């Protein structure tokens, strides 16, 4: 399988504090890779560093064979990387449809109508709410909108930061079923998630981050039964 994204010995600092320590990992084309870890482990920092916010202190971030670690966020987004950020960060005063249109900024409007229809097929709830202000929707609907907005840029790699955060268990199940449907289209997904159970069941491969370092790696199935993972993230079950 072709490697789409690779971190090579990446360090990230916030002033004197080191947030990532010699992180090396890769995401292969067509797979779902996940990173699990507790709150504050450095997972979101890792995703944001892809877009240069923050810039890495040392190492390389290679995307499709090119070092993008010093490229602008716009350059990265217009070359096939899209992120659904932690906390959703939709445009609350805009309608669902207007939010989706914002997702086309990196690539232009050429496929807009076709892609919007595809989003409404993937996310029927959004079709029902297409003219509704995003701020008036439920947390689960807003998460669906954030994912759909990212997909509107036709990414080669979809980055998801804590898509289950703050959602009721039944909604979390719905979100992960949608991600499974998205992956079945051949989309490459890199998922960062505290909900280890759902993430590892969905993932082909997984990484465990602790205090800014990769501590474990393996297939989703291997990590689900790993005693350390079970004890730390699955309540021992």
TrEMBL record:
Record carries keyword Transport: yes
GO molecular function, one term: ATP binding
GO biological process: L-amino acid transport
PROSITE patterns in the cross-refs: ABC_TRANSPORTER_1, ABC_TRANSPORTER_2
Pfam families for the chain: ABC_tran
Residue ranges annotated for the ABC transporter domain, each copy included: 5-236
Name of this chain's protein: High-affinity branched-chain amino acid transport ATP-binding protein
Organism: Marinomonas communis
